[in-house]
Amino acid sequence: MEGYGSLRRRLRGSRRRGQLTCLAFSGMCACMPVFAGAEPVIDGTTVSFTLVPRTLNDSDIQVFNGVPAQSGDWRSIAISQSTGAGPTCTATFVGNGVLLTAAHCVVLGNNRFASSIRIGPFKYRCAVDDAYLSTKEMPSVRHPADYALCLAEPYGDKVPDEFLHLVWDTLDLRAVAKDDVLMVAGYGCVSWAFNPSTGHISEAAHEKILAVGDFKVNALQVDTFSSESDGKTLSALCAGDSGGPAFSGVNAMKPGGARTIRGVASRRRIDQSTVVSYFASLSSARFTQFLACWKKANPTAYVNVKPAVPNVQEASACVSTL
User: Which one of 57, 151, 182, 242 has the fewest beta carbons within 10 angstroms of its own beta carbon?
Assistant: First the structure.
């Protein structure tokens, strides 16, 4: 992770717009984590994020099957509880005034976006992949390209001290492999309900806790990777975890080390006694193209990414939504 840098100078210089996403996270019974589910934003919802160190105490951060965490380890993460019927979400700073989150939390109705996205005094405009906007393949998560990059609008006043101590994580475009063990973080419910007589599991009530836990990649898809959980001993996503980062380089026993982001918590499917959790992959060709186009549309924005993003040669390769 790196320092937040010269926020005021970058905010004054950037004037691009886009779209946003959102996320939340949770754990499970028997001290097990549960992660993001698909809960669409309601028309008219306002999405406001706050910084983890400002909002949560160390006791509000739960690491499953690991060592105690400190809020300072999560200075790159922002959490959100929308007004009204909207979802609870998570986002990660990945550059100077740049957030990564999930598209389905802020896309409203027919190709519209959240009415406002704020963290403190800063307003963010976010861009989502055109593939997500142009299809309704899924009931609430329209397309596996369930990610968004959000860029702060120009801001001329004094930057609050809390923003001067932020750090940002790194987008990691390297391919994820089956059986990789990653760590996910999100803000939402923290337990599953387990019925021993039927063997079925269901989501428990939402709690305002940042949940952190390990999971193993069980399957690879074109734009996503997924994991499976029994709801008792393995991490899984649940409603409210959308947009949370899937990290490599750290684990529940060492949650505060150097880390990179490999995916974004997107949705989950419950099949009786199994929860299948899906993450939008940052190593897909689709995301690489999206990121290249986003950088082309926002040339002054800095994003922490490895390896380097290839340049876009043809303007027609980038969609107008950026």
Answer: 57
Q: Where are the domains of the chain?
A: 1-303
The architecture in CATH of the region 1-303 reads Beta Barrel (2.40)
Residue type, 170: T
Residue of 18, 184, 218, 37 lying closest to 99 (CA atoms)? 18
Shortest CA distance to 187 belongs to which of 33, 55, 24, 77?
A: 24
Beta bridge partners of 148: 101, 128
In whole angstroms, what is the distance from residue 74 CA to residue 156 CA?
A: 27
The residue count of the chain comes to 322
Map tokens 């309900």 to a residue: 193
Strand partners, 124: 152
H-helix segments, the chain: 7-13, 52-55, 130-133, 161-164, 285-297
> What local confidence, expressed as pLDDT, does residue 63 receive?
76
Global pTM reads: 0.81
Closest among 170, 124, 115 to 11, alpha carbons compared: 124
Q: What's the pLDDT tens digit per position in 26-56?
A: 333 333 333 444 444 555 566 788 888 887 7
Decide: helix, strand or coil at residue 103.
helix
Q: For position 34, what pLDDT does the model report?
A: 39
Contacts of 299 (CB under 8 A, 6+ apart): none
Residue 265 has pLDDT above 90, yes or no: yes
